[in-house]
Every structure is written in structure tokens, then in C-alpha cells.
Design a protein that fits this description.
The structure holds two protein chains of two kinds. Chain A is an all-alpha fold. Chain A is built from 17 helices and no strands. Chain B is 37% helix and 14% strand. Classes of the chains: A mainly alpha, B alpha/beta. Chain A: It holds the Pfam family mTERF.
């Protein structure tokens, strides 16, 4: 039995070695000289061989698992949607995992995306910027996008922008995202135009709550007067300034107090939230169950 | 048929704990009307934003944050219980004894002054060697106490200042004549006057002599007074005090600032102490914990408040009823107190806007619309109480005035008003003791305000979230 197992592992090792040696990554040792099989592949894919070797060089570890056919399938299929080959190479460079998608999945995914009649050019831009969009399950896309659309006033361009800033909204737990969106809309009284251009949804709800409460207690974040015109500019710091800064920057530059005060506040706030959560265990469900 | 069905449903829902309480929605409990309601808390915050925003400028934000966050306590160990055991337990919790902090600070200060002295000596030697000038620096930094005449005495020597007479016929400056007349009645919207305008009445310059002297003696924490607190930024709560063998609680928790007036009194053995507005009795209890005063009289104006003091005392001292003249309770109006030269230490912790409380609780809140009149009268009442204390204090005795408000009117303003009244009406000579130097060892525990004229103020600052507490030490010399 033991012999059998050792034989099997040895054999598997051998096989995998064979496969990797067939792939191109091992061959790329010298930057200036582009190996022959890479030139061939570049020709087939219609890209510059130097660019290709550069990308492969950047992600040697990951790319060695994917065969040439995967490259061909991806390029062939996505060029149908007007993606340029250089853009596709860029996508692989930023997220090499998209080579793992098989043709069927790719097809379903792209159909799901096009199903919502986004503007072609903008959708393409989004996918180039966030290639992980292709890794999603088509059912997830079909169910998630309408939900998100309702939060941004059914404006498709806004949604694409939001996804480009925080792609995690497509696959994170919906209840958690909903709680964040509700907090922004109801507690911070901000509209979709203000939050779609920030990465607020990729930060944690705790950070958002903590920083917002901090500013409210300092008297720097005032609720909107319901009778004032909605176009009136409030003196509140922008969401970008609140969320896209480090703790120290936030305390000193945005809030105008010492960093020590913010750190102490964070500690107290965390304690308060924990105590609240202990009181009603319903709150915990936000973070635990999926979708 | 219908009846049985509903009964079944009820029993079913009961056993599954799905009982839903349906609130009867009336006009008052509707969410929109609840949201619209302005509570005294909100009024207080709005008022402070306007008033303190103009007084403290940018610093107000940081104070506001601290006031709206939970505050820190200090624990005063009860000497009438198992004090040693309790102190040990508190130290195990990670709390530090204020005395050790102060002593460490003093030792450090001593070392640094020694070094400074040596350096200064070196410099002087160099000067002597380099130049032959032997100019002696005889000027003393400290201002010596100079007796200043009271109003009546100075009036005898006074001359008319013709240039300051205002011609009532001239229309140009007529508004100025009415500016300083205090309102006698309140009408409708008078509460709407923003207090930052009101602040203009608080003037910097004084037109009567005030003696301010530095307190030279070192900070003295009475040997039996054990105070514990946690380090800067450490918000560990003190557990609820346990009752010991004598069935009294182990320690008393109070705001960190509240111990300072007791320290400022500089209690000595055999002192006769009066606490003019004693309830709820925290400072009185801390005074007793020093085991120094010969007698302590706790006074308050309402019976319900006297009861509160009784409650606190019974919780911490099992046999206080039999103490006789050592601990007495009186119920009278502090403004009309007339027992001159009986007490040599008087603590005047006056009723005030109680800033932190006003922002936290809607009950017993000074900013209730119905209490507007009371609130606007506060400075006057406070000045009267302080005046009455200064009238009754024995010669050489100390009065400590304290409030828990940030308002400069209720603090320095009231002290000035009371001093003015004393100067006008009596021959008492009062000096203000500047405690800046004496409180320096406490710098690591409290965030003190700078730039006050007479007193000291503990500013709320989040990592050291005590106060607000203002105190001013006054000594009668003649």
C-alpha cells in the first residue's frame, strides 16, 4: 500500500514536471532574448513578443499552470467583444487568474454582463480595470446587479463607476454591503453621486462608523437640514477625505485634532460596539451568514 | 369556531416565543415626532457650540468630543472600611495611586532644579569673571502682598474724573448707557439670545484692586487620602465597589476633577470645614477620608439633597450618626449664611450649568426651556454664595470656589464679581492664590487650561477625560 502511494506521488511529480516544462514560463530566463515558442504564441495572439515575455516574467509562478490553449481561448473569445489584444495582455498582467476560466464559464459570464445593457465602452473599461469581474459566477452577477442598481438610482454608468472603485461589492456578503449602503444613505445622508466615486464600500463598516461618529462628536459633521435645498453644499468633509486616509492623516488633517485622541476614541468606540452586540445577538447575523 | 382558533394560535405563539408586542401608535410616539423633538440635551449642545465655540475657538472641538464620550473616574478609598485590602486590589487592577505619581513628579522636578541651579551658578561665575560689573539682581520675581484699601477708604481720597461724565442730552452714545443694565424680567424669546453676545459683558480689565499671589507651598496630599486612577488613554472601568467586613463600600467613584478642590483646601489637623453646597456629598466624603478636620458641616438648600448626602454617608461610614459635632448637616440657603469666623476652610461647589451632565441626561437638566430663567440667574446666585462664604470665613482661612462648567462667566467672572462686592461692602482683605505652580505635579494626570486669570481649570481631553472643573483658591488675610 505504502509502495503504491509513493509510486503514485512520484509519478504525479514527474507528470507535473513534464507539463510545466511544456509551458513557456520556465524558458524565460533572459529578458532580452525572447524564446522561439513565445514568439509563436505572440504571433498567434497578435501581440508584441516583448510585451508577452514581460507579462510572463512578472507572473512566472502563476502562469506556469496555464497551457497555451487557455491563452488562445481567452483571446479569441474576448476579441469578439471588441477587446484589444494589448488590453487583454494588460488584464492578465493585473490578474493572471483570469486564465483559469474555461470557455463555457467565460461565455456565461459575458452574457450575464451584457444582459444589463451597459454602455459597451464603459463595460469594457470596467472589465479591463477590474478583470476579477470575469471570475464571478453568472448567477451572482444576475442577482447582485439589480440590487445594486436600486441603490444608485438605477443609473448604470454610476454603478459601473462604483464597481471600478470597490469590486468587492459583487461578491461580498449582501447583508454586510447593504448595512454599509444603508449607513451611508441614512446616517451620513449622502447621495449616490457622492459615494460612487470613492472606495468607501471596500472599507469596513466599523471604520466608516467610527470615523463618522468621531466627526459628529467633534461637531464637524452636521446632519443636513431637511428644509434646505438638496443642492446646497454642506460644510462636511468629503467622503473621500474621510475614508481614503490613514488613521493619522485623518485625525490631523481632516479632523484637526491629535492622533492620540483618535486612537483612544477608536478603542472606546470598539468597546461600545462590542457591548451593544452582546446585548442583541441579532446584530451578529450581519457578519456571519452568506448572502 | 373562531374563538378556539385564536386561542390555539396564542398558545402556539407563546410556546415558540414569538410574542409580538404591538405598540399603539399615537401622535406622540410616532417616529417622526420623536425625531423632531428637541431635548434639553440638544439645546445644551447647541448652546455650547455657540458660546464655547467663540470662547475656545479651535480647541472647542476637542473639548466637545471629550464631553460627548464616557468620562473617567477616580476611586477614593474608604478609610472606614478595609482600606489596605481595597488599595491592594485596586493596584492589582492596574490603577495607580495619585500620590506616587505626584511624588515621582516632585522628585524629578527637584533633580532638574538642582541641575538648573548649578548651571545658573556656573553662568553667574562666568559673568563675574568676564565682566567686573557687580550688579546684583535684587528684583524679586514674586509680587509681595500689598494691602489695598477697600471701597469706602478709597472713596475718601478719590477725586471726580470730569472727563468721564456723560452728557445725557447728547444722543450719540445713548445705547451705551443701557448696555450694562441687567435684565430684571424675562420675556418669551429671551432664551434665544446667543450666549456669545452675552459673553461680551465679561470684561477683562477690572476697576478695583485684586491681589493675586503665587501659592508657594508644595502640593500636599493628606497622608490618609488614597486616590486611584488609570493611566492616560486607559479606559478600564472600576468594578462596582464591594462591601467589606464593616458593611460599607470599599471606595467612592467620582469625576477625576472633583478631588482637586479638596486638595486645594490644604486640610490640616483640627480644621473646621464647611461644605456650602454639599449634595451629593462626594467632596464632603473625600474631606472626611483625610481624617484631618475637627468638624465638617454639610449644607444644602433642599431636603431631598440633604437626603442624598445621608445616603452617601451611610454607604461609606457605618456609625456617622453618632459622630456628633464632627459631622453635621444643615439645611439653609447658602446665600444668607451668617456665622462669621466659625470656619477656617469653606468649600463652595456652587450649582452651575453642569456641562457634562447637561449633555448626557435629559433629567434634571439646566437647559430645559422652563428653567431658562434659573439658568440665566446662575452667575448672580453663584456670586452671592461665594460672597457669603468670603464674609463668613475666619481670618487666615481658605475658601475654594469650584464649578463644573466651562463658562468663563460662571468661573473667573463670578470670582471677580464676588471680590468686587466684598471690596465694596466690607473691609475684608482677600487674596487670590494662583495654584499653577502647586498643581504642576498633576500635569501628567490632568489637562489644565492655560490663560485663566484667577483659577485653575481641568479641561476635558479624551485621553484624560476628566472635568470640566474650575477651582479658585481665596484666602482672607484681614
Amino acid at each position: 500500500m505504502l509502495l503504491m502511494r509513493t509510486f503514485r506521488t512520484c509519478y504525479l511529480c514527474h507528470c507535473s514536471k513534464m507539463i510545466t516544462s511544456k509551458n513557456m514560463s520556465v524558458a524565460v530566463n533572459d529578458l532580452n532574448v525572447v524564446p522561439e515558442h513565445l514568439c509563436n504564441l505572440a504571433k498567434q495572439l497578435n501581440v508584441k513578443s516583448t510585451m508577452l515575455s514581460k507579462v510572463i516574467n512578472n507572473h512566472q509562478e502563476k502562469l506556469k499552470f496555464y497551457t497555451e490553449s487557455r491563452w488562445l481561448v481567452l483571446f479569441e473569445y474576448l476579441t469578439q467583444y471588441d477587446f484589444k489584444t494589448s488590453e487583454l495582455l494588460e488584464m492578465i498582467d493585473s490578474n493572471p487568474d483570469i486564465l483559469s476560466i474555461n470557455r463555457q464559464h467565460l461565455q456565461r459570464c459575458m452574457i450575464a454582463w451584457t444582459n444589463f445593457r451597459f454602455e459597451d465602452k464603459k463595460l469594457r473599461q470596467l472589465i479591463i480595470l477590474q478583470p476579477s469581474c470575469l471570475l464571478l459566477d453568472d448567477k451572482l452577477i444576475l442577482s447582485r446587479i439589480p440590487k445594486l442598481l436600486s441603490y444608485v438610482g438605477n443609473k448604470q454608468n454610476r454603478l459601473l463607476e462604483l464597481i471600478s472603485y470597490s469590486p468587492n461589492i459583487l461578491f461580498d456578503n449582501w447583508k454586510y454591503i447593504e448595512s454599509k449602503l444603508d449607513y451611508i444613505l441614512l446616517n451620513m445622508e449622502l447621495g449616490p453621486t457622492q459615494f460612487v466615486t470613492t472606495s468607501v464600500l471596500s472599507s469596513t463598516l466599523f471604520d466608516l462608523k467610527c470615523r463618522h461618529t468621531f466627526l459628529v462628536k467633534l461637531g464637524m459633521y452636521k446632519p443636513r437640514d431637511p428644509k434646505a435645498s438638496p443642492n446646497l453644499i454642506t460644510g462636511n468633509p468629503s467622503l473621500k477625505a474621510i475614508i481614503e486616509t490613514s488613521d493619522k492623516q485623518f485625525a490631523v488633517k481632516v479632523a484637526g485634532v491629535t492622533a492620540e485622541e483618535f486612537f483612544v476614541f477608536k478603542k472606546i468606540f470598539k468597546k461600545q460596539l462590542d457591548e451593544e452586540n452582546d446585548d442583541d445577538s441579532d446584530e451578529r447575523e450581519y457578519y456571519s451568514d452568506d448572502n | 369556531m373562531f374563538r378556539t382558533n385564536t386561542a390555539a394560535l396564542i398558545s402556539h405563539s407563546l410556546c415558540h416565543k414569538h410574542v409580538q408586542i404591538v405598540h399603539v401608535r399615537t401622535k406622540k410616539t410616532h417616529w417622526s415626532s420623536i425625531k423632531k423633538k428637541i431635548h434639553p440635551k440638544d439645546k445644551a449642545l447647541e448652546h455650547f457650540d455657540d458660546f464655547y465655540g467663540s470662547v475656545y475657538g479651535r480647541r472647542w472641538r476637542s473639548i466637545r468630543l471629550a464631553l460627548l464620550s464616557p468620562h473617567k473616574y477616580i476611586a477614593v478609598v474608604n478609610n472606614f472600611g478595609d482600606s489596605e485590602k481595597v488599595s491592594q486590589q485596586l493596584e492589582w487592577l492596574g490603577a495607580m495611586n495619585v500620590r506616587t505619581v505626584v511624588e515621582a513628579h516632585m522628585l524629578k522636578a527637584k533633580e532638574s532644579t538642582n541641575e538648573k541651579n548649578i548651571q545658573e551658578l556656573d553662568k553667574k561665575l562666568k559673568k563675574l569673571l568676564l565682566t567686573d560689573d557687580n550688579k546684583s539682581d535684587t528684583k524679586k520675581e514674586n509680587v509681595e502682598y500689598v494691602e489695598k484699601a477697600s471701597l469706602h477708604e478709597s472713596l475718601l481720597e478719590a477725586e471726580h474724573d470730569e472727563s468721564r461724565l456723560i452728557d445725557p442730552e447728547a444722543n450719540s452714545n445713548i445705547g451705551g448707557l443701557y448696555q450694562f443694565i441687567p435684565a430684571t424680567e424675562l420675556h418669551g424669546k429671551s432664551d434665544w439670545i446667543p450666549e456669545s453676545q452675552h459673553y461680551q459683558y465679561y470684561e477683562e480689565n477690572s476697576d478695583f484692586p485684586i491681589n493675586i499671589l503665587n501659592e508657594e507651598s508644595l502640593l500636599n496630599i493628606p497622608p490618609h487620602l488614597q486616590i486611584f486612577t488609570f493611566d492616560r488613554g486607559d479606559f478600564t472601568p472600576f468594578p462596582h465597589p464591594k462591601t467589606g467586613a464593616t458593611k460599607v463600600s470599599g471606595y467612592y467613584l467620582m469625576d477625576g476633577g472633583s478631588i482637586l478642590p479638596v486638595l486645594a483646601l490644604d486640610l490640616q489637623l483640627g480644621d473646621r470645614v464647611l461644605d456650602m453646597c454639599s449634595a451629593p456629598g462626594g467632596k464632603a466624603l473625600a474631606t472626611l477620608q483625610t481624617l484631618l478636620p475637627e468638624s465638617l458641616v454639610c449644607n444644602d438648600i433642599q431636603e431631598s439633597r440633604i437626603k442624598k448626602i445621608h445616603n452617601v454617608m451611610s454607604e461609606y461610614i457605618s456609625d456617622y450618626q453618632s459622630w456628633g459635632s464632627r459631622l453635621m448637616f444643615t439645611q439653609m440657603n447658602a446665600r444668607s449664611l451668617n456665622e462669621p469666623d466659625v470656619y477656617n476652610k469653606i468649600l463652595v461647589d456652587v450649582p452651575c450649568t453642569n456641562d457634562r451632565h447637561s449633555l448626557e441626561n435629559n433629567e434634571n437638566n439646566m437647559f430645559k426651556p422652563t428653567r431658562a430663567k434659573e439658568r440665566l440667574q446662575l452667575p448672580e446666585i453663584q456670586a452671592d454664595i461665594l460672597k457669603s462664604a468670603l464674609m463668613n470665613i475666619a481670618v487666615g482661612g481658605t475658601v475654594v470656589y469650584s464649578t463644573c462648567s466651562l463658562s468663563p462667566i460662571q468661573n473667573d467672572g463670578v470670582v471677580k464679581m464676588a471680590l468686587k462686592k466684598i471690596w465694596e461692602e466690607t473691609n475684608h482683605q482677600i487674596i487670590v492664590k494662583d495654584l499653577t505652580k502647586q498643581f504642576r505635579p498633576l500635569k501628567s494626570l490632568y489637562s489644565f487650561s492655560k490663560g485663566l486669570k484667577f483659577g485653575q481649570m481641568v479641561m476635558p481631553f479624551l485621553p484624560l477625560n476628566y472635568g470640566p472643573l474650575y477651582l479658585c483658591k481665596l484666602v482672607r488675610v484681614k
